[in-house]
Amino acid sequence: MKNTFKLFGIIAIVAMTGFTFANCQVELRDEDDTTTQNFWAVDYNNVTYSLTAELLAYNNYSEIWVEVGSGITRAQARAFADRYANIRGRLLDAYSRKNFTASGRQFANILDYANWLTRGDAGRGRLTVLLLDIRAPPGLIIGGYFHGRDFLDVPHSNRRDMVYINSSVLAANWESAVGILAHEVVHLINWTEAELVWQNRAEWTLMDLWINEGLAEKSYHVVFGRNPAERVNWFVVDPVGTISRGNNFFVWGNHRNMDARTILDDYATAYLFFRWLFLQAPPGMNILRDMVTSAYSDYRIVTNAARKINPAWADWDTLLKTWLAANLDPTNPVFGYTGDNELRGRLMVRHVGDTSLLLYPGEGVFSVMDSPFTPPVFGFGPNIRYAGLTPGSGNISFDTSQITGNTLLTFNANNNINGPIEIGLLTGVPPFDAMLGDPPLLPTGPFVVSLWDIIERDGGGDRR
Hints:
alpha/beta, 2 domains, 3-stranded antiparallel beta sheet, 15 helices, elongated
């Protein structure tokens, strides 16, 4: 697996959520002076180590600390601080609750609360951004990460609201570094919201990783106003051929043993699902904020928000089925990617000619129907559902007796991410060439994934 990652030079955005440097406050002086401080960081193998960084820039919203010897200039650090100041408001508008009381104090937004929670009044409302050379094997670049232990008074905690960005990414690709920054800030927002929920509970539970990552993935469009090309391209090309056979975000990383690159299926489909849900929401509804501030920890975070768009979407079966149908028929006026001309014009799915497939919870596949399909009464997975689709039609046939349409959707509607693999039936009709799409292209990278996938550990969501 690691050799595969080296070959394709993957950039990793880290969503680390662990239980983990005593807070050492500094007196901020003129930027032209040199202020240094030691920080804790982690490497490719999740080993904690100490490094020395210089404060090269700060403004009202952030402090940019740069690891000594990383090569980042003061001008670059200042520009990065300015860029964060520019995108901060967009992230807060999309994800943050506003003007709330916590710990007996009034806060304008969740980032102000995160800063006070970790550093008190000495934080001055400034997010700590540490630009460092994240240690990894040759040929592998890790983009950055957020670590929840920095909120806790435990060993190796920096006791700051902070994110870590790879200095080599900033030096090579400004836009990529800004995208990583936005992604990690959303993880920080999510963690801080969990802190608020935790105040009213004896313990936290883990937010499902697919929701945590999906919300962070959506930040790319929030800050840039366009879809991330690498995510859309990966979905459309499906170079490993596993998206067409069902792999998606719901059970995170479940096909990595087959091919390490399949984790990119999870990121691509998570982005598209949350983008689609955002597009379906009516004007004035802040669906991202609704999900971030939810007290749930599982799929109900999503269905509880989605029911405000369509009451039927309170049911996970129906919501999942409708999104899967939108990928087959993205221009559909009822349930397609309304308002996003790029996705309406580019998205496509490939049909499968098998007679059956093993499907994890959340996975769905398409096969050609040349006659009505009758679902089995018994003997197959209890959570397997079937739907008949005809592109251009606003209706989805969802029956237990006889299904019509020209495409059969077979999916596992189990809402438990730890649920079993189940057998789903397909029609067995060979897809014709137009349905197969273009031949898969070899990926070129670099790509953005989570550090948990790099170090081969089980992923975890924000604690909720």
